[in-house]
Design a protein that fits this description.
509 residues; alpha/beta; Rossmann fold; ten-stranded mixed beta sheet; two-stranded antiparallel sheet; 14 helices
């Protein structure tokens, strides 16, 4: 006998989002003593004209000994399309994933340990997953049926609603984060706390934008803004045969990575990383910039001398540099530096390499050891932290890095093609004028070829800051790559520098 279902009978749908926030109490054993803290993990509903349009997931770590002057920091990653798990479980939270030596991948399984370098010792932390990442979701697409739907390239969640891509755009994304901050401050009565925003990669772009928008639109006065491996001006991160800045800014990181692999040639014995970097910066802004400016008009003797120096600093062969016209892409460098060893370097940390599965092919076709290879670490760590430790109950997939969001991302609705290369440095400058007391902390890793440290270093010198404003900007570079905090020594140094930064930001002017 076959079971039959009455199609007219209403079906009860299982809600994908729990209505209650998971609240738990914990204590962290640190060398300086026990640190008790309270955690709330759940969703805040974003509304448009009282209608729910998205559920934004967050994890808030709050010290139990609340004081009026205790800082509160809102944290997010980048992508766009990345959840906050990288900073959450890699650097700032009270628990972290275990990395291998110097940021390398350890063997499975994923291990989570207490984080002795947590920032919870000097600030409360709220990790936000932007819409479409982590457990955050937009609700049913309300656009007309005639509009094209976005292609879902991610694994489908059985209980996911049909998503609206409205928030996958620069200004709407900033609006959602601004609304979240405002709602959180009101719910937790934290409007008078010292407030900070911290973001990594594209998250640094968000921070620079929010340094203006939070204060101008939402009335949120910031004590500090932290940009971690930031992408600030996108035109400086894209190279072509006709521009200079990308190649000049990338070169010192190529030289730093070559030195780390022992590939530097004809250099003084025991030359340090700092000394190599100093030489590479000078060469990039002088000789290399001159070659790229003059091109074939440069005298051959000068060109050959520049090629020779480039070869010495990068470890690449001269014919390869000549064929590239001095424009060494990160992909070319990562493909060729260790080619005879049958290894590929990572773009996000060029000091890390992996076996090249296709050594006979010219193109870089193997896995990047510093991108998708690390997903297993953070996917395991964040799911353990949220589901087991913090007792979040949901059938939703935690989207660590959503390529659906990344590929659908837009700058602005109906923007002109000539305005597609966006930047946020003007917003940061504007925000620093709106609030002359706001401090800015910019941090990079030397071996990062995606957002090179020298880019931010150059941009800061072009901001036309006053002497007082310059004193409000702290720039630190660390051994490591895009996630330099995966290096144990750099993570400890980063925490120490951040603690000092928070102390300066809280001090009266």
């Amino acid at each position: 006998m076959t079971d039959q279902t009455d199609n007219n009978e209403p079906q009860v749908a299982k809600p994908p989002f729990p209505m209650d926030t998971a609240a738990t109490e914990h204590a962290l054993d640190l060398p300086q003593g026990k640190l008790p803290y309270h955690v709330e993990a759940g969703w805040i509903t974003l509304r448009k004209i009282h209608k729910p349009v998205a559920h934004l997931f967050h994890t808030a770590y709050l010290g139990q000994n609340q004081q009026e002057d205790r800082p509160l920091t809102f944290v997010f990653n980048g992508g766009p399309g990345a959840a906050s798990a990288y900073l959450h479980m890699g650097a700032l939270g009270p628990q972290r994933v275990v990395f291998g030596t110097n940021g390398r991948l350890p063997q499975p399984p994923t291990r989570v340990v207490d984080n002795l370098e947590t920032w919870l010792t000097f600030t409360d932390l709220v990790f936000i997953d932007p819409v479409g990442t982590g457990f955050s979701r937009a609700l049913k697409d309300t656009k007309s049926k005639s509009e094209p739907k976005t292609k879902n390239t991610d694994k489908e969640d059985a209980d996911d609603p049909q998503e609206n891509p409205e928030y996958w755009e620069i200004d709407k994304d900033l609006d959602s984060l601004g609304e979240f901050v405002r709602r959180f401050l009101s719910k937790h009565h934290r409007w008078t706390s010292p407030l900070y925003v911290a973001g990594e990669s594209y998250g640094g772009f968000r921070v620079a934008k929010m340094a203006r928008s939070l204060q101008e639109t939402h009335g949120v006065g910031l004590s500090g803004a932290l940009l971690i491996s930031p992408a600030i001006e996108f035109d400086s991160l894209l190279g072509s045969d006709y521009n200079l800045t990308y190649w000049v800014e990338l070169f010192p990181s190529l030289a730093a990575a070559a030195h780390q692999h022992g590939r530097t040639r004809n250099h003084p014995e025991n030359e340090s990383l700092d000394e190599i970097i100093e030489r590479a910066e000078s060469f990039a802004t002088n000789e290399l910039a001159r070659w790229l400016t003059h091109g074939e008009a440069l005298q051959e003797s000068d060109r050959l001398q520049i090629v020779s120096t480039m070869s010495d600093l990068t470890g690449l062969d001269r014919p390869l540099i000549e064929r590239a016209g001095g424009r060494i892409t990160s992909t070319l460098f990562c493909r060729e530096l260790l080619r005879e060893q049958r290894r590929l370097c990572g773009h996000y940390d060029a000091s890390i390499s992996t076996v090249d599965p296709y050594p006979d092919r010219n193109a870089y076709e193997g896995p990047d050891p510093t991108l998708f290879s690390i997903d297993r670490l953070f996917t395991g760590a964040i799911n353990h932290q949220l589901r087991a430790t913090l007792q979040v109950t949901t059938d939703l997939e935690y989207r660590l890095l959503s390529m659906q969001v990344n590929e659908a991302w837009k700058d602005k609705e109906n923007s002109h093609v000539f305005r597609r290369l966006v930047g946020a440095m003007d917003d940061l400058r504007y925000g620093m004028s709106l609030n002359e007391h706001m401090k800015v902390f910019i941090a990079h890793g030397y071996f990062d070829l995606i957002t090179p440290y020298f880019s931010s270093q150059r941009l800061i010198q072009l901001m036309k800051l006053t002497a007082d404003q310059k004193n409000n900007v702290l720039v630190k570079n660390y051994t490591g790559g895009h996630m330099f905090y995966s290096w144990d020594g750099s993570r400890a140094a980063f925490q120490a520098d951040a603690r000092q930064f928070y102390g300066l930001a809280k001090s009266p002017a």
